[in-house]
Amino acid sequence: MLALTHATLLDGTEDMAPKTNQVVLVDDDGKIKNIGADDEVVIPVGARVVDLDGKYLMPGLVNMHVHFCGSGKPRSASGAADLIGKVTGSGIGRMWLRSEVKKSAINELMSGVTTVRGVGDPVWADVAIRERVKAGKVTGPRMLCSGWGVTPPHGHGVGLIAQVCETPDDARALVREIFAHGCDLVKLFITGGVFDATVKGEPGVVRMDLDMAKATVDEAHKLNLPCATHVESADGVLLALKAGVDTIEHGAPMTDEIRELFLENGVGRASSLTTTISPAIPLARMDPEKTHSTDIVKFNADMVFNGIVECSKQALEAGIPVGLGTDSGCPYVTHYDMWREVVYFHELVGVSNAFALHTATLGNARLLHVDDVTGSVEVGKSADLIVTAENPLDDLEALRHVETVVMAGKLIEHPRPKHLSELDPELDEILHAKTTPEAEA
Ligand SMILES: [Zn+2]
What we know:
The protein has two domains: 2-60 and 375-413, Urease, subunit C, domain 1 (Roll); 61-367, Metal-dependent hydrolases (TIM Barrel, Alpha-Beta Barrel), CATH 3.20.20.140. Strands 1, 2, 3, 4, 5, 16, 17 and 18 form an eight-stranded mixed β-sheet that branches. By secondary structure, it is α/β, with parallel strands linked by helices. 36% of the residues lie in helices and 19% in strands. It has 13 helices and 18 strands. Helix 3 (125-134) links the parallel strand 7 and strand 8 (142-144). Zinc ion binds next to loops.
């Protein structure tokens, strides 16, 4: 048994309910057994006691959007597709890919992410690593995996993280294959993205038609798999919601029609928005040469960036659930920087520190339907916890230095994510510029 004592506890609820001098007891099967004041909780004889000395103990972070196959090292989109094309064709290549997925998953955990959802990865490498984590062979986070995404001809992610479907029947067949491989969700690519846009002002051209989107969602829901959808334009969001998807990834400024569809959508599966500022902000703010951006990419990146921030604000105002994800694997988005997304959410969307933390923990866990097991510090839930020396309610950057991670009861002291150290100063520059999109426009 593990006893974390003298903790300042932030529990995951909307105001994070800070409480000083708390004890959290974790039993041998990794669940939280008791929580209470230091002078009230009896610590069983033989328990391992970790005195937190007033440090901040909170739920592990939940990251709703990553691609495990990429590290965040900047590459052009065509370079990445070439690489994946080469490696998926050979046994050694697929082994290499699994080792990359494993590294990414471990980095997520070492940076304080105890639950992570993959939304598009090749050759079922994500599922393979998830199984090794489940079997206790790899110390990793709780992983939800999509496997290959579903994309139409010339769609986003072709060959890289998605497989092409020519017809709605193809899409249904691919969904059944995704299910057969044991995936946890289905990822659809409805619009294009910043890197495959050919015209200024059109980063989110609709590429999948409603018939294919509906067929995909229908087949997935029959198999009880939720659907996450890549969309970067209002037209795309509208089509995705009409098809009945569960989560809109990225987003675009909303119309009244979109707002209503969001709120009414689904049968017991209200659609939510996943805000992802991390992949958009480097393209919008950094030197285009560094990010391999052409004029078109830069222009469209600004548009997507502003659209994502605007959409997030509109959703919160309308009472549409908003989750947070990093899109790790994209250029300049590492697997150890979930904290940056939390800071961006606070700085750019304008939510309080407490609400940003809640969103990154219990809020995200609810949207992933894993809140019965994780996302808050509550008796009976898995002990998925992190410790910081500074108070994230005062400054969210406290999350940058996670001193201890507890994953399903397993104590990891001084976790060390592997950094792409050449990226850190550049990302810090963006972070500390702290300009709002409006101010720039
Ligand atoms: Zn993505």
